[in-house]
Amino acid sequence: MDNISAVIEALIFASESPLPLEKICAVLDGVDKTEVKDALDKLIAGYEERQSGISVQEVAGGFQFRTRPHLAVWVKRLKGTKPGSLTPAALETLAIVAYRQPIVKAEIESVRGVDVSAPLKGLLEKKLIRILGRKDVPGKPIIYGTTKKFLEVFNLKELADLPTMRELTEITEQQGMLDLEAAEENTGGQETILQESIGEESSEVISEVIAEDDIDS
Amino acid sequence: MDNISAVIEALIFASESPLPLEKICAVLDGVDKTEVKDALDKLIAGYEERQSGISVQEVAGGFQFRTRPHLAVWVKRLKGTKPGSLTPAALETLAIVAYRQPIVKAEIESVRGVDVSAPLKGLLEKKLIRILGRKDVPGKPIIYGTTKKFLEVFNLKELADLPTMRELTEITEQQGMLDLEAAEENTGGQETILQESIGEESSEVISEVIAEDDIDS
Amino acid sequence: MNEELSTDYAIKLDVFEGPLDLLLYLIKKNEIDIYNIPVALITQQYLDYLNIIKSLNLDLAGEYLVMASTLIHIKSRMLLPVPEEPSEEDMEEDPRSELVRQLLEYQAFKEAAAKLAERPLLERDVFIRSAALPEEMKKSLTDDDELLEVSIFELIEAFHNIVSRMDNKDLLEIDLEKLSLTDIINDVMERLTREKNLTFEELLGERKDRRRIVYTFLALLELIKLKMVKAYQTAAFGVIRIFPAVEF
Questions:
Q1: How many B/C residue pairs have CB atoms within 8 Å?
Q2: Nearest 5°: CA angle at A158, between A152 and A163?
Q3: What phi and psi values does residue B62 have, to the nearest 5 degrees?
Q4: Which fold has domain C129-248?
Q5: Which residue has the higher pLDDT, C32 or A80?
Q6: Where are the domains of chain C?
Q7: Which pLDDT score is estimated for B34?
Q8: Do A165 and C108 touch (CB under 8 A)?
């Protein structure tokens, strides 16, 4: 039998998508799973030790060769840079879907405070999110979730691999005490600020600024 | 500068077609050609020495990673790694069947405006649609409907989970038009919204702001 | 309002992702504690910003106006005199609390989005093999029982394209009721193909809830109308048997 590490190397390379360990085992029928895992680990370690330009990464539930991030500048010189990266709106929408899925549009909108039709469409087109089904509530809204491609694009092993999100309760506890003091100080100042800023003056200032801006541009 | 061998490794790996030496030199602008050649030779030799599963081969005037020929038997065991896709014609036909079933061929053709024999055959082969029966009218036309596999592929519990026309307009419509309408509606509605939701005191403030606003614009 | 602030708005006009984003910006800008927002100040700056947008004739999403009214509403509630002896309810309800909660939540997701964007992204930071495999390899890779990767979204888009090409859009109106009915129709036809003929009772099977009965009955009516099935009865009030209209 051939060297197992070499076989695995060829398989991972040839696979069009991240290759799950189970699939490697299925191909290497008869080889013990721990043996396969050892050979895989050895393969991965080899690429790390050599500090080669490519490495075996675990993404989306499988293994895949990828170029190393710090070499991106060179690869881009070769391939040319592609635009079409995600807009902040799309990225925010994606983050909400990723952490809160399964989720309906109205829930995303209540977090972002704006209509999300456009970013949702963009994410669906890019196949980063997908329609999971319908929620069994009045109106039967569509439920969204992330795709396998989302994991591939963001270099995630699985959804549990998402960076931990700051917990809201945590923040609340930290700051709760400070606020009470600050609250008292601030109440006094409100009235004044309000009167200062509402008068005609301010709109003049704005018009000025806008005028300046026009000239500049 | 990064290790030249590693850069070359990443470039050859990421390239869509066999990568000529000249192109590598062009990317590594400023590095001496003999130095590039040396690094490339070192890279190739490294893969040979390790007896790895892949190697850098010179093909069609360039360099490319390939799995080693003697491992082909393993690679061929790796089945169906790349999911297929549907042609636009098949997708449209499938969409019509999905939403209009039970449906006969003539009806699909009247919607698509072209002959649908080929896409229908393809969809039947892929087991996404099936023959539900025949209609008891002259010619006894075949009636088509979707299959269980259709539901599986599209991750649906039942057909009623398919998005409706209204929803799909919501998702796919260009945002531009909707925004304009919304903006107009809102401008007209401002006064009302504000008066409804706000006590008298502050609505004065708002009226002021809005009044200023109108003058400005 | 000071000049520096307005200059700043003018520069940042297009970068806000919505009213919450703008509010977070104002809070940061004024070095305000998010848990104790001076509503009057923030409301004023917020309205100033809307002013600029309007005077520049830029599109203003409706959400910004809704937030304006929310802010003013909160402000007016905060101006109300506090009762001499505050009851329990008054104590626990700060008019700002819901807004604060929203802001914190939005902020957390904004951070999460930024963290996501920092990851080594495919086609930006890392690249996979894009060369095709040699033909002889490819063949064996795909002659498997083909896996399909199509999303409903693509299906919807395809349908949407057809609809937009057609003049008579009513033809293609879809409703959920119809789709639910179709589920049953498919089920009925599948079983008729297998069993050749069935009674209404048998069609219902185990699932005899009200909805199921009604839908099965409607499905049968539809199928009879479409001339896909025939219903026979041996005697008045006898058992009704359903047959495919045409054997195949």
A1: 238
A2: 95
A3: -150, -175
A4: Arc Repressor Mutant, subunit A (1.10.10)
A5: C32
A6: 7-119, 129-248
A7: 92
A8: yes
